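FAQ: What does the model actually see?

It sees only this:
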Amino acid sequence: MRRCCAKPYEGSEKYIFASYCHADGDAVFPIIERLSGEGYLIWYDEGIDPGDEWPETIASHLNGCEAFIAFISKKSVDSHNCRREITYAILKKKPFVSVMLEDVQLTPGMEMQLTANQCIYKYLLQSEDKFYEKLHKPDFFNACRGTTGQPFPRLENKTAQDLGTNREKCGDTPSDEPEEQKAFAKLVRENLGEEYLLKAALTSVGRSEEKSDIYIKGNSAIGRVHCFIEADENGFWLTDNDSTNGTFLNNVRLEPMKRVRLKDNDRLVLANDCFVFRSIN
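And it is asked to produce this:
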């Protein structure tokens, strides 16, 4: 299952609580990422820190949310945790949208709960545009757009395939891959001369081999997912992922979660590790 690149929101602004079954991540994460890229503030349970009490953390974020979105599938209907979250959101009278990811046989009780609120049958819609058009309509949903700037790089016109992992080992340059999969840029690590290839529209960089597309070994000062590099029709963009030790572009520390333009031969410092960004023609 692919990881979600959007950082769960923590703060005082109005936000959306996303309820989903972890097994549905491949279907749910692109939706969360796109909404986050459009400025919506979203919390989901990837934000629970190790050692936190799960029920208390979930209940706290449910109590604090402005809106609730439930992603419904066969797996989520069978999930005791998902059903509890839905029941609790209704008990707390949270504005509610449910997204039907597939055709599901609901129990009479759950059908009664879900149909009493807005329900979007995503699997029946002809296009992604139709789905997001419906999802953007509720006023309570739109109240959760941030006022402090975009919390995540814009992902408009990106697909789930675009956002797939592109982790590369140092020095790997496959020669038999399709044209669209060829690297368009690279990061060169100054102290070791290592090269990391960028191929996807959105690439995460950090010290976590599991969570980052580009895995930086041997430096604990770098965050698990330290920053993001995005490519679109307008060029390249860099975003610091609210890292502890900062992301610096040409000696200027970036404001967390605010993307800035990235140019050929720019010098990046992640914590205390230096890289040069180079495009590949």
